[in-house]
Amino acid sequence: QVQLVESGGGLVQAGGSLRLSCAASGRTYVRYDMGWFRQAPGKEREVVAVISWSGGSTEYAESVKGRFTISRDNAKNTLYLQMNNLKPEDTAVYYCAAHSLGVLTTRIERYRYWGQGTQVTVSS
Length: 124
What we know:
Blueprint: E1 2-7, E2 10-13, E3 18-26, E4 33-39, E5 46-51, E6 58-60, E7 68-73, E8 78-83, E9 92-99, E10 113-114, E11 118-123
Parallel strand pairs: 2-11
Antiparallel strand pairs: 1-3, 3-8, 4-5, 4-9, 5-6, 7-8, 9-10, 9-11
């Protein structure tokens, strides 16, 4: 089992930037694919970006392509999400998640381990 803890959320003006981090602990020797997901009030949780264990493969939601970058540092057991040119519609609770299925996927139900989430609020 792996434990995930997000940090880096906050309040930012439209056009600004934030960098989220997700620290993993526990069975970090297992090869986990990881991802960032978000949930806005009254909406379903949605994928933002996912990354393979090696970092060599990534996928992004269309709404964040060109603005967000997912990356990871396996030596530090940390996942990152660099968010630039933020928009009010990016306001949500952001979650990191992991799975060890060995196939990169954007399907939320495939992610077994979840963090508690960090709030991102973008003001207009």
